[in-house]
Amino acid sequence: MLKAGIIGGAGYTAGELIRLLIHHPAVEIDFVYSTSNAGNKIYAVHQDLVGQTEQSFSSEINSDVDVIFLCLGHGNSTVFLQNNLFSVNTRIIDLSNDFRLNNDANFEGKEFVYGLPELNKDAIEKASNIANPGCFATAIQLALIPLAKEGVLNTDVHINATTGATGAGVSPGATTHFAWRDNNFSTYKVFTHQHLGEIGETLESLQNGFDKDLIFIPNRGNFSRGIFASIYTDFEGTLEEAYALYEKFYEDAPYTHLSKNPVHLKQVVNTNNCFIHLHKHNNKLLITSAIDNLLKGASGQAVQNMNLIYGLEENLGLNLKSTYF
């Protein structure tokens, strides 16, 4: 039985991890560390866990656990690892953006592998540390990497993607409270979103010489969870050829699925799935992808990576069903 620790236990991604790991047949949660909630019952914060755990948040860290999940704000994982040492056998899975880019992947002797299983499964299986991809980055990369692998991303890529309120984290802010978010829709970080870096590096690694613009408009939606991305670029082949290309690329991917019908968020929310639909109009290929930002975009993918590292079935503990209605 693997012993797991969670750092930063009060946030949305930590809550999802706790829910997943409580029911994971190969994992025992050793501790959930939270400076703001130390001593409080976990279910006092993650209130749906009443009756499922009597464990309390911890103010202490066990440095000998098998795997650590870092559920900290961006920039905080680096500081945390500078101040806390773990066993050489402890695997680290970081859910922030601290180690995703190539220039940041080696930190104080620790090498972080970019944890997109559909792209890096072989490297993940041999890894000691994982940089879990961003939520927008996951939805967008899964929509584009089959084209980059084929070397056919030869024009600018236009991306419009909308995320739910949980994408902003648990701490309340001016654009997350109910009165502002309800019946509302807005853009933010247009053209400059931080996930563009990791998306660009992935595409460049697959398509030699890729230098086209990624024109990204992120949006805030008036729903709690999920990401819906609409992406278009030039494609010279037929729609049938595009589907064949994607189906071949994802034939061994248990959570990324092609749909001949348009996709929507209710199909994927509360699952670890990504659903992708293709549409051809003249010379443009439209790719739509949908994920749950807290699962396939964060904690579900982190557990998927853990399973791969330890040689477990990739889908162990992740056979979740959408709450369609």
What does this structure look like?
With 325 residues, the protein is α/β, with parallel strands linked by helices. It has 2 domains: 2-132 and 296-309, Rossmann fold (3-Layer(aba) Sandwich); 135-295, 2-Layer Sandwich (Dihydrodipicolinate Reductase, domain 2), CATH 3.30.360.10. 27% of the residues lie in helices and 23% in strands. It has 9 helices and 14 strands. The strands form 2 sheets. It has a 7-stranded mixed β-sheet. Strands 9-10-8-11-14-13-12 form a 7-stranded mixed β-sheet. Strand 13 and strand 14 (284-291) form a beta hairpin. Helix 1 packs across helix 9 and helix 4 packs parallel to helix 9. The radius of gyration is 19 Å and the shape is globular. The model has no long low-confidence stretch (mean pLDDT 95).
Question: What's this entry about, in short?
Answer:
Helices cover 27% and strands 23% of the residues.
Poorly predicted parts = none
Gap between N and C termini, in Å?
A: 36 Å
Number of strands: 14
Principal-axes geometry comes out as globular
How are helices and strands ordered from N to C? EHEHEHEEEHEHEHEHEEHEEEH
| Helical/strand content category | alpha/beta
Give average pLDDT, whole number.
95
What Rg is obtained from the alpha carbons, in whole angstroms? 19 Å
Domain module tally = 2
Q: How many H/I helices?
A: 9
Main pleated-sheet profile: 7 strands, mixed
Approximate strand percentage:
15-25%
Q: Helical residue percent?
A: 25-40%
Name the CATH class of the largest domain: Alpha Beta
By CATH's scheme, which homologous superfamily of the largest domain applies? Dihydrodipicolinate Reductase, domain 2
What fold name goes in the CATH topology slot of the largest domain? Answer: Dihydrodipicolinate Reductase, domain 2
